[in-house]
Amino acid sequence: MSARSPLDIVLDVLLIVALPPLLQGVINRTKAFFGGRQGPPLLQPYYDLWRLFHKGTVLSRTTTWLFRCGPVVGIVTVLLAAMFVPLGSDRAPLSFEGDFLLFAYLLALGRFSLVLSALDTGSAFEGMGAARDVTFACFAEPTMFLCLLVQAKAANSLKMVDLFAGPLAVDARVAGAPLLLVVMAWFLLMLAENCRIPFDDPNTHLELTMIHEVIVLDHSGILLALIQLAASLKLFLYAALVVRLAVPINMVHGGLHWCVFVACVIGVAGLLGVVESVMARLRLNLVPHVLTAAGVVAAFGLVLLLTMP
Length: 309
Fold this sequence. Notes:
- This protein is mainly α.
- Helix content is about 70%, strand content about 0%.
- The chain has helices at about 5-20, 20-35, 45-55, 65-80, 100-120, 125-155, 160-165, 170-195, 210-215, 220-245, 255-280, 285-305.
């Protein structure tokens, strides 16, 4: 593994801070293309965040400090989790043995804080959305750990930088098929964890189908901007995991590996736009079945890897 240069650290931070809202713009433009519309500008998510940061915040008299703390903890946990993921280089800003456990629990803590923020409003409507979100998380989180176990066994390491070093970091003849199954499971997790179609519709306002949107319904101003920024960063984070696992970026020499990474992440956003354009939202009672199927795929990958000579 090559030495970590200051330029790589700066590029990591710049990508984490600046690139996530662009992915939402790519998804919106892709969906507009399939719908035969012009669609919003590519940089519209940046304008929306700028506008929200300059708006006032409306707070209910029934809320406490938990309501204000939830979005802050959410953005901080996702930022910390992103520090453990290698982006365009073969190292991450933070790394230690077993850091994949902290990565998973940071994401869980962000969800927990947002659920507490929703419940603090005292609204039965937001309580319904929080219950749905936590229920689906019970199916998604075991799948995540199964994926990480397969990668830990394949890479013979417990570090995120080794788990997502790319498919050519291990013997493809041994781990190729299991890692392919893991990529499929990660892609389904990306759709579910980021409330994308077919699991959820981020643009819906129907009472019977809302999940994530109902949780943030009472947030406004800076608090809503933090939630939207955290959601964009989480989408970027999952896209980066899929790219790092599926694309051999480390085989690209020079500074081109950063360009390849950015292009692949934008390509994943475009793929999400295609998925949302050609598929309909699933009924709520079918979401656990799909998440269970993703867990079965990851578990089969683990069994396949353990039984290989």
